[in-house]
Amino acid sequence: MADTDTRIQPRKKGLTRRQRRRLSRGAQYVVFVAAVLAFAFSADWGRLKNQFAQLPIAEQMFPDIITLALKNTVLYTLSGFVVGLVLGIVVALMRLSSVGPYRWLAGIYIEIFRGLPALLIFIFVGVGVPLAFPDVQYPGGTYGKVAVALGLVSAAYMAETIRAGIQAVPKGQMEAARSLGFSPARAMISIVIPQAFRIILPPLTNELVLLFKDSSLVLFLGVTLEERELSKFGNDLASTTANSTPILVAGLCYLLVTIPLGFVVRRMESKSQEAIR
Amino acid sequence: MSTPEIRVEGLHKSFGDNHVLRGVDLEIGQGEVVCVIGPSGSGKSTLLRCVNLLEEPQQGTIVVGGTELTDPDVDIDAVRRRIGMVFQQFNLFPHLDVTENLTLPQRRVLRRDKAAAEKVAAENLARVGLADKAHAYPSSLSGGQQQRVAIARSLAMGPEVMLFDEPTSALDPELVGDVLAVMRGLAEEGMTMMVVTHEMTFAREVADRVVFMDGGVIVEQGTPEEVIGNPKNERTRHFLSRILDPAMAEVEDVPGKTEK
Which stretches are transmembrane (chain A) (predicted)? Predict the structure, then answer.
């Protein structure tokens, strides 16, 4: 009997579970360190530094890169975000409408503008619209153009996010509001949409980060010196100095905004989770 | 009761192929408290939800306080201001604190100014015994407290009729009493009430009339003594025996009976 009962016998052959786990983790560290070392030794740091990290060139970018380029980038992004948000709410409500043609129109809008590269939309807004309607002027010149282009791109994404947010608000909320005598529109505005926005704050902020980067496409619209944003500014200076340092500095400026923004999103995410339930 | 406060006539309601209400007639007089009981899937919640048109019936007439709700041209928002509704799941607005839950509907719907709305809110919170929770958020309240806030929110609109859709079914047993006490107080003040409930003690002690529904029709109605104490219909007897003494009930298969 004793020799048939193997249930409590320790495994004799091979490695134990713990030994195997330790070995696997060790192997992963070795691969990681090897990859980092290979990268560090194979790159030509001298030439890289020469091309991307020239301190005198970086210095001459200030303060314009902040006071002009970064300011413009933020301005383009925010104006595009506002247009996109308003348009996005309208499209989301159309998508949820009981009127068929509204739903179809919203669906078509979303499919088209979500599917097209942002660059094409910039060209369409910057070149196509002025050709088709020569008398129409964008309010605010380039700023208006960018707001419309970025707004059209982001509205398609935001509409889907907002729709999901509205649908995530429990049905009982609308019923309670209607029972109290709210009209459907008022219930939507006072009760449902505020709760929907609480739910979708993190994805909306992500959209803001995406827009921040897409604002670099302004350079295809042709801008004056005062209207340049980070990418155009860095790119221009890179060609006049024949050195890529300005590009690196411009890139760092993007991170200066996006990294804190990501931090804020994570904070909001954990906070809104506490608040809702 | 000369003119009934609520009058339901020949009501039919289907969800797709599911014929939930199959011709319901019911009159509730002013100040009357009517408890609707019945097995799940009997259509009692649907009937209640029809009375403020949260569900639109396919056929039949509903008149509340002299206004026909089933008239296609009725201003439904105006009628609903006179009908308070309390839900099983409370449905407080989670993004607003307790006072705001009570004042926002008054201000947006009744156009009361802030001070007046806050005064009414404070009165009604005191009425349900929650004056000290005025600035709490719903998520920090127990289920019983949330339900009492929901009742206060309805009362703040000054309704003539109150509808209760299984108001204690989502509560832990020890929290049921507070909610029932508030409802009993309302009944004693003379509020017209229609209550869908499984609380037989409440029905027996507070209701003026008990209505038993099964299969989308009213099977039996009368005073609590008649319906609960001495049911005439076999289906009523069967239902009551199961609900009053669930430990003694036998397993039975009820096909396709689901209710929200």
Answer: 26-43, 74-94, 115-134, 247-265
CA B37 to chain centre: 11
Q: Say if CB B202 and CB B224 are below 8 A apart.
A: no
CB atoms within 10 A of CB A128: 12
Three-state DSSP class for A153? helix
DSSP string of B47-91, one letter each residue: HHHHHTTSS--SEEEEEETTEETTSTT--HHHHHTTEEEE-TT--
Average pLDDT over residues A74-87: 93
Enclosing H/E stretch for B210: strand B209-214
Query: pLDDT tens-digit profile of A127-178?
Result: 888 888 888 788 878 888 889 999 999 999 999 999 999 999 999 999 999 9
Task: Inspect the interface and report whether the beta carbons of B93 and A198 lie closer than 8 Å.
Answer: no
A207 CB-near residues (< 8 Å, 6+ apart): A81, A84, A154, A157, A158, A161
Q: Beginning with the edge strand found earlier in the chain, give each strand of the sheet holding B67-68 in spatial order.
A: B18-28, B6-15, B59-64, B67-68
Minimal CA separation from A136 to chain B, in Å: 40
Both ends of chain B: CA-CA distance in Å? 33
Inter-chain CB proximity A176 and B93 less than 8 Å? yes
Alpha-carbon dihedral angle through residues B33, B38, B41, B47, given to the nearest 10 degrees: -20
Chain pair A-B, CB pairs under 8 angstroms = 66
Interface predicted TM-score (ipTM) of this complex, two decimals: 0.90
**Region class of B151: left (phi > 0), else alpha (psi between -120 and 50), else beta:** alpha
Neighbours of A3 (CB within 10 A): 5
User: What CATH code would you report for A67-276?
Assistant: 1.10.3720.10
DSSP annotation of A43 reads S
CA-closest candidate to residue A76, choices A126, A149, A157, A156: A149
Specify the pTM: 0.81
From the list A207, A234, A216, the residue with the least C-alpha distance to A122 is A216
CB contact under 8 A, B94 and A191: no
